[in-house]
Write a structure and sequence with these properties.
This protein is of the alpha/beta class and 251 residues long. The chain folds into two domains: 2-63 and 209-220, no CATH class; 67-198, Rossmann fold (3-Layer(aba) Sandwich), CATH 3.40.50.1400. 37% of the residues lie in helices and 12% in strands. The protein contains eight helices and six strands, in the order αβαβαβααβαβαβα. The protein has helices spanning 2-9, 32-47, 67-81, 103-106, 111-122, 151-157, 175-191, 206-220, and strands at 20-23, 56-59, 92-99, 131-136, 162-166, 195-198. It has a four-stranded parallel beta sheet with strand order 4-3-5-6, sandwiched between helices. β1 (20-23), α2 and β2 form a beta-alpha-beta unit. α1 (2-9) crosses α2 (32-47), α3 packs antiparallel against α8 and α6 (151-157) runs parallel beside α7 (175-191). It is globular and about 65 Å long. It starts with a helix and ends in a 31-residue tail after the last helix.
Length: 251
C-alpha cells in the first residue's frame, strides 16, 4: 500500500503529485477487519512518505444501505428466483450469508445491525419468502465464539425443500463464495435432497456500479446526497477514533 501511495504522491520527476486521494474499500459493512484495519493500514502507508509531503487520504463511506447496493442485490435475487417461479414463495427459503467474525469483534461494531438492516431492505418486495441471516468462512481457535449460525448448520436444520443462498456480505464471487457456497453449502443441500440455488454477488451489476459512482461524487462534493434506505441512517464519511475496535482491544 505504501508503494501505491508513493506512486500518486510524487510525479515522474519526483516532485509532488496528488495531494488528496479517495479510497474505496469494497466492504459494505463495518467491522475491524472490514473498516478500521484499512484505516490503520492507510495511516501507516502515508507515514512512510517524505515528511514534507502532505497527502490526505479519505475513504468512501460504508454502502450497506445505499440504494445502489440494495437495488443490485434485489435485482440479482429476483433473477435467481425465476428458477422457482412455479414454487409457492413460502416454500423457498432465502439464506443471506456474510463472513463470520469473532463475537468479541462483533460486540465492538455495528456489523450484525447493518447486515440485518440490509437483509430487511432487500426483502422489501419478497415478503412471503422466509429468510435468515447466516455466516460462513469462520476460522481461528475452535474455543473462540464466532457469529453463528454457520450456513451448513442452518441447512442441516432447515425444514424447506428449496434454498436460495444470497452472499450479501461479499461484492464479488471470489474463492470464499465459490468454495463455501457453491461447493460446501450446495453439497449440504444435496445430502438432504434440498434444491440449491445461489444469487450472484453484486459484482458489476449496473445499479451497484452506478451507486458507487454516486458515493464517489458525494464524497468529492459534486453530489449533495446519496439515497440511503432503512432506519439506521447514513453512515458517517469519517470514522470516529473508537469505532470498530479489534477483538483484542483493551478498555
Amino acid at each position: 500500500m505504501a508503494s501505491v501511495f508513493k506512486r500518486y504522491a510524487y510525479d515522474s520527476s519526483g516532485t509532488i503529485g496528488y495531494s488528496r486521494l479517495l479510497v474505496l474499500v469494497t466492504s459494505a459493512f463495518s467491522s475491524y477487519s472490514g473498516c478500521r484495519q484499512y484505516l490503520e493500514d492507510i495511516e501507516r502507508a502515508v507515514a512512510t512518505l517524505d515528511s514534507e509531503t502532505s497527502l490526505i487520504v479519505d475513504k468512501i463511506r460504508l454502502f450497506y444501505n445505499s440504494a445502489g447496493f440494495i437495488g443490485a442485490v434485489q435485482d440479482n435475487l429476483r433473477k435467481t428466483l425465476i428458477e422457482f417461479e412455479h414454487t409457492p414463495n413460502e416454500d423457498v427459503q432465502i439464506l443471506f450469508t456474510a463472513h463470520s467474525i469473532p463475537k468479541s469483534m462483533a460486540d465492538n461494531c455495528d456489523y450484525e445491525v447493518q447486515l440485518t438492516e440490509a437483509c430487511t431492505q432487500v426483502m422489501d418486495g419478497f415478503e412471503r419468502h422466509p429468510w435468515q441471516l447466516v455466516f460462513q468462512s469462520r476460522s481461528g481457535r475452535p474455543s473462540q465464539p464466532w457469529l453463528e449460525p454457520d450456513i451448513c448448520d442452518a441447512i442441516e436444520v432447515s425444514d424447506r425443500v428449496n434454498i436460495v443462498v444470497c452472499p450479501i456480505g461479499f461484492v464479488s464471487d471470489h474463492m470464499e463464495v465459490l468454495f463455501d457456497l457453491d461447493l460446501e453449502a450446495k453439497n449440504a443441500c444435496e445430502d438432504r435432497h434440498i434444491k440449491f440455488a445461489r444469487v450472484a454477488s453484486v459484482g458489476t451489476n449496473p445499479m451497484f456500479v452506478s451507486g458507487i459512482a454516486d458515493l464517489i461524487e458525494q464524497r468529492s462534493g459534486t453530489l449533495e446526497q446519496v439515497l440511503t434506505l432503512g432506519t439506521h441512517g447514513e453512515w458517517a464519511n469519517r470514522c470516529e477514533l473508537g469505532c470498530c475496535l479489534s477483538s483484542d482491544a483493551e478498555f
